């Protein structure tokens, strides 16, 4: 009996290692046939002088990096902004994390001519990458084809600091696993770096919550090839993407 259990555990471990590091589990190669005309031809600067590349997906133009600014466009210092794990090295890699109240300040967080994407604008992006209208309007982990893979810069978070990491970036959106700042009443101040990405939209759902999007880089996770749409507490610190006016 012990030998049988040992064999089962060994096979499970081998399969996990294979799926995690070597297979294309969760990556639908048919997405390469999507007609995505992504062109990058503009560089935008924020108030702090940070530069952002852009990409056109469908009829929208998005920044390809998470926002890193510490000032609104009028020069006012942003409150409710943090760095993952309070590590300055993560700014270039992940961008900064913003509480929702910071992103809707009338002073303006995105550079002139740009704004934080709304829930509807995220839906437009998702539908441009193949999601059906019905699923775009639903909540939870949603998938029609493989929109999550289309949004990600790298297929495997495990290879984040490894030269063997596989770059896919089909759409040019270049999503990275930037993690999140948790609420003040939770034990861990940061969560999910290297495994998850969480993005605020500019759309409020109720007084204490706003709509968000999440991606996950864990191949055995039920959402590994999906995009999460939900409504979370505004105190969380999430990444921000700007879209052109």
Account of the 3D structure:
- The protein is of the alpha+beta class and 245 residues long.
- It is built from 6 helices and 14 strands.
- It has one domain.
- The chain has helices at residues 2-21, 89-94, 100-103, 119-128, 133-136, 147-151, and strands spanning 43-45, 51-57, 60-63, 81-82, 97-99, 114-116, 140-142, 178-181, 190-193, 196-206, 209-216, 227-233, 237-238, 242-244.
- The protein has a 4-stranded antiparallel beta sheet, with helices on one face.
- It is globular and about 40 Å long.
Give a topology summary.
Blueprint lengths: L1 H20 L21 E3 L5 E7 L2 E4 L17 E2 L6 H6 L2 E3 H4 L10 E3 L2 H10 L4 H4 L3 E3 L4 H5 L26 E4 L8 E4 L2 E11 L2 E8 L10 E7 L3 E2 L3 E3 L1
Count of structural domains: 1
Total helices: the number is 6
Largest sheet: 4 strands, antiparallel
Strand order of the largest sheet: 7-12-11-10
**Mean pLDDT over the residues:** 79
| Helix share, percent | 10-25%
Write the element-wise H/E pattern from the N-terminal end onward: HEEEEHEHEHHEHEEEEEEE
The chain-level structural class is alpha+beta
Q: Radius of gyration, Cα only, in angstroms?
A: 19 Å
Strand coverage percent: 25-35%
The count of β-strands is 14
> N- to C-terminal separation?
65 Å
State the low-pLDDT regions, or none: 4-8, 10-33, 157-164
General form:
globular
């Amino acid at each position: 009996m012990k030998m049988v259990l040992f064999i089962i555990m060994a096979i499970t471990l081998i399969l996990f290692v294979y799926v995690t590091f070597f297979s294309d589990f969760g990556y639908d190669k048919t997405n390469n046939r999507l007609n995505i005309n992504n062109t990058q031809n503009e560089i935008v600067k924020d108030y702090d002088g940070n530069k952002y590349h852009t990409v056109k997906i469908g009829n929208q133009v998005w920044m390809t990096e998470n926002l890193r600014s510490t000032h609104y466009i009028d020069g006012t210092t942003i409150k409710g902004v943090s760095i993952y794990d309070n590590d300055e090295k993560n700014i270039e890699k992940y961008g900064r994390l913003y509480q929702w109240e910071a992103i809707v300040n009338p002073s303006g967080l995105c550079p002139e001519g740009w704004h934080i994407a709304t829930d509807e604008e995220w839906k437009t992006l998702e539908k441009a990458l193949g999601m059906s209208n019905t699923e775009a309007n639903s909540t939870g982990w949603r998938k029609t084809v493989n929109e999550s893979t289309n949004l990600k810069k790298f297929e495997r978070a495990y290879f984040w600091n490894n030269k063997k990491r596989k770059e896919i970036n089909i759409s040019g959106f270049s999503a990275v696993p930037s993690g999140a700042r948790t609420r003040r009443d939770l034990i861990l101040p940061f969560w999910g770096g290297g495994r998850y990405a969480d993005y605020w939209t500019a759309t409020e759902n109720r007084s204490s919550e706003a709509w968000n999007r999440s991606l996950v880089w864990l191949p055995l996770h039920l959402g590994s090839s999906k995009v999460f749409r939900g409504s979370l507490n505004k105190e969380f610190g999430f990444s921000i993407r700007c879209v052109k006016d």
